[in-house]
Amino acid sequence: MATTRAAPVRRAQRIARSQRDARSDGSQRIRRAARELQATGEHLATSDIDRREELTAHETLIARHVASGSTSKEVAGELFLSPRTIDAHLPSIFRKLDITSRRQLRGMDL
Q1: Does residue 101 contact residue 51 with C-beta atoms inside 8 Å?
Q2: What's the pLDDT tens digit per position in 90-109?
Q3: Own/partner pairs for 35-44, CB < 8 Å, 24+ apart?
Q4: Residues with Cβ < 8 Å from 81, sequence gap 6 or more?
């Protein structure tokens, strides 16, 4: 029975790693663009991109599921966690993204 559960867990871990790597590459590009703009006398405006970088890979995965309209129970089933664990992550996600509800999360590009 452990093998049936292991494949989805490995898949979730692979997705989280690829998202982390992509986010890391993106943040390097943003920093470079900010330096280039600063050299010309301009400044990069803070945006959702800066706030998204504060999320951990796990929080990003949960936020994307919730943003797609999934309930805590559905997200928990997909990620092999309990619904209470999902609900425990949401306040941290909301705080880091400077939002207060799932509805606001739906409008964000994650």
Answers
A1: no
A2: 999 999 888 999 999 887 87
A3: none
A4: 75
For the chain, give the mean pLDDT. Answer: 79
All domains in the chain, ordered by first residue: 2-106 (1.10.10.10)
Please state, in angstroms and as integers, the Cα–Cα distance from residue 79 to each residue in 1, 10, 76, 84, 91, following that order: 17, 10, 5, 13, 18
Q: What is the pTM of this model?
A: 0.56
Polymer length of the chain: 110
Measured CA to CA, the distance from residue 76 to residue 33 in angstroms comes to 37
Q: What DSSP line would sit under 22-72, residue for residue? A: HHHHHHHHHHHHHHHHHHTT--PPP-HHHHHTTS-HHHHHHHHHHHTT--H
